[in-house]
Amino acid sequence: MTDTVPPGTDNVRERASAALDAVGATLPVGHGLTARTPITGEDLFELHATTEQETEDAIAAAEAAFRVWRTTPAPARGELVRRLGDLLRAHQGDLADLITIEAGKIRSEALGEVQEMIDICDFAVGLSRQLYGRSIASERPGHRLAETWHPLGVVGVISAFNFPAAVWSWNTAVALVCGDPVVWKPSEATPLISLACGHLVDRAVREVGAPPAVHQVLFGDRRVGEQLVDDSRVALVSATGSTRMGREVGPRVAARFGRCLLELGGNNASVVAPSADLDLALHGVVFAAAGTAGQRCTTLRRLIVHRSIADEFVDRLVAAYRKLPVGDPFAEGTLVGPLVSAAAAEGMRQALEKAVAEGGEVLVGGGARLVDEVPNASYVEPAVVRMPEQSAIVRQETFAPILYVLTYDDFDEAIALHNGVPQGLSSSVFTRDQQEAERFLAADGSDCGITNVNIGTSGAEIGGAFGGEKETGGGRESGSDAWRAYMRRATNTVNYSSELTLAQNVSFL
Ligand code: NAD
Predict the structure, then answer these.
(1) Which residue range(s) make up the domain with 272?
(2) Residue 497 falls inside a structural domain
(3) Residue nearest (by alpha carbon) to ligand 1 atom 28
(4) CATH of residue 123
(5) Which among 188, 206, 337, 370 is least buried, having the fewest CB atoms inside 10 angstroms?
(6) How many domains does the chain fold into?
(7) Is the predicted ipTM greater than 0.90, yes or no?
(8) Which residue owns the Cα nearest ligand 1 atom 10?
């Protein structure tokens, strides 16, 4: 398969400017933050980084906006999100361009990311009329017991480069209908798409007459994030990124008794059982492992295949990998775009070296591509590595397209291998054996937050709650009842009798 050579940096810069113009956003020209593109590995624009004082002002403005927003009826808050969803629909192509330019995603995946944003807006609009509390049977006569959900406060959203807009939208659409203003600190690698999203919310805010500070964007590196983390006016810090980041953020928010929602690294696995439909499994595995150039939190990193089918399945996998078109993420037909940075490519190279030192055999991939054509970019061949055991490198998340293959003999062993890593985000089993499928989903099966049958580990829908266990951080975002993390619960006891009856039959006076 021939590689597609990407366009030059000037061309990418023009495309970025055109997308920003179409959205109506103006570049905050200045210093402190560089917008760059992994397509060529070169710089696009110099931008103003948010200062400490500007962050302070933003948090204060959000706190003031909260006082108005929390008593705005939830369906009226939903109108803001409805309008945002309309604007996202109208600019789906422009936003997808910016995602491709900054995160390196191929076109269909970038469009898919914007689709997810539209979907969560639709979901949140419905949610704005469904923030239900429970009515509970009281043990006392003439009493009513109920729970009410109230807005929580300012939500600080810290997001990663690889889903630069979808993760923001999961948090923002839900937080806004829950009555919480949002202060967003996007990844320093993706300021342009953040600028565009921020501009579209500002427009929606103006059109529906919401308080301007219900949504603000802060541009900068982790220092800006740290200011949000340490500020007790930020009621919830929703942070998506590496486990290293979560390990730093979690205790700091806890120290001030703030609320934290952590969405951290994954080390996702699929079990392929002897009864599996191997054509379907192959398709699912290649998309999950090589898609997004291995840069999804749900990317498939470990394949646990039954020994009886391992050789056949791995041969087919290697053949499919050899045909993967690498290169320009804008070009039709490309399936693997660039890695986000040279550091990511170096991380991949080192992981492969360690895997070999730990007894692994690289069956395909691992090399650099398009080195002469785009010397500053990092295009790599997705790799498949057969491992003798689940060694130290296999237990780590390397944010690059490396798929480690392990074999098993019985299903208990497959589950033990599957769960034998520190992370717990996404998992799947390919099988036509109902007992195996149900066992995988059962309490003593996969220990992940996402457990699938006959589908890969990546590509979740917004309707379900998204997140994972163990070092993935335990947070849940997006659909189902994830909204509860953005609200505070009040338990109400109302005495409508003329007696003061104490609970548990306590008598006093
Ligand atoms: P990263 O941890 O380097 O950065 C993520 C964000 O955190 C950035 O905005 C960064 O500026 C900020 N940050 C870093 N250190 C901080 C600190 N000490 N205090 C406050 N903010 C801080 O991650 P990345 O390289 O952008 O993204 C890749 C990682 O994100 C992978 O590990 C991936 O698995 C994970 N991820 C997880 C999910 C999920 O839902 N579980 C989704 C997407 C990405």
Answers:
(1) 268-465
(2) no
(3) 241
(4) 3.40.605.10
(5) 206
(6) 2
(7) yes
(8) 222
Tens of pLDDT along 227-283?
A: 999 999 999 999 999 999 999 999 999 999 999 999 999 999 999 999 999 999 999
Identify whether residues 479 and 431 lie together within a single domain: no
Which residue has the least CA distance to atom 19 on ligand 1? 226
Instruction: Tell me, using a 6 A CB cutoff, whether residue 264 lines ligand 1.
Output: yes
Residues marked active site are found at 263
Pair (118, 226) in one structural domain: yes
Q: Is 94 in the pocket of ligand 1 (CB under 6 A)?
A: no
- In short, whether 266's Cβ falls inside 6 Å of ligand 1 is yes
Burial tier of 420 (Cβ tally within 10 Å: 0-12, 13-18, 19+): middle
Q: Would you say 432 and 439 are in contact if contact means Cβ atoms under 8 Å apart?
A: no
Separation of alpha carbons 116 and 167, rounded Å: 9
Q: Could you tell me if residue 347 is inside a domain?
A: yes
| Residue 3 resides in a domain | no
Residue 33 located in a structural domain: yes
Q: Is the pTM of this model over 0.95?
A: yes
Name the residue of 109, 184, 242 to mutate for ligand 1: max ligand atoms within 8 A of Cβ.
242
Complete DSSP assignment for 80-131? HHHHHHHHHHHTHHHHHHHHHHHH---HHHHHHHHHHHHHHHHHHHHHTT--
Which residues fall within 8 angstroms of residue 330, CB to CB, at 6 or more apart?
A: 6, 7, 39, 100, 107
